Amino acid sequence: MENNVFEQLAKRYDTEERKQLAKVITEEVRLELQDSLSKSLIDYGSGTGLVSLEITDLVDTVLLVDSSKQMLEVAEAKISHNRVTNTNVLYSDFTQETPRLEADVILMSLVLLHIPDTKKILQELYDILNVGGKLIIVDFDKNDKVNHPKVHNGFVHEGLKRQLSEVGFVSTEIKTFYHGSRIFMNQDASMFISNSIK
Predict the structure, then answer these.
(1) Domain ranges of the chain
(2) Which of 123, 2, 148 is nearest to 71 (CA)?
(3) pLDDT digits (tens, 9 = 90+) for 57-110
(4) 3-197: what fold?
């Protein structure tokens, strides 16, 4: 991932638009985390924690992982300010090297589109999950109006399902849950949530 872009964005990342979108995503993710109070969660590509810091009450522990130190500094300030006690941060980029971690749930919210090798990162995340663990992906549906050299223009449900199955996930449910105006590279777009079990 191009760290420097996100490093420069970090301090002004939490715009009103991003907060609104994160709120929509958080509401959907919360539904997936019922009965997870004993579980550990990793938010991969957490950014400033816009989504995961809103779900710390639903799980036992949260680890925010990001390849931008500045993003994590903003997240740490929020953790400290809100006195969140079950949450830590980790500076890491699993596309370069994956640390030895384990988790019951991994969340990836609007991150997959930034990672060139989709299958490789899905494999890394699969390997970290405990047996019976859950990978929750929130991202954009395929959108032909979006064209950017460093970003996937969304994902086709069946194609993503196939890749998840190829890396070892036993079941995947995907559904589109939100349509918004100008939310993806200034284009109208829809978001899906995918829930895969190891």
Answers:
(1) 3-197
(2) 2
(3) 999 999 999 999 999 999 999 999 999 999 999 999 998 888 999 999 999 999
(4) Rossmann fold (3.40.50)
For helices 157-167 and 118-128, give the axis angle rounded to 10 degrees: 50
Q: Which of 94, 27, 85, 89 is nearest to 59 (CA)?
A: 85
**Separation CA 139–CA 51 (nearest Å):** 13
- The span from the CA of 66 to the CA of 41, in Å, is 14
* Tens-digit pLDDT profile for residues 154-182: 999 999 999 999 999 999 999 999 999 99
**Secondary structure letter of residue 148 according to DSSP:** B
Q: Give Cβ neighbours of residue 18 (< 8 Å, ≥ 6 apart).
A: 50
0.70 surpassed by pTM:
yes
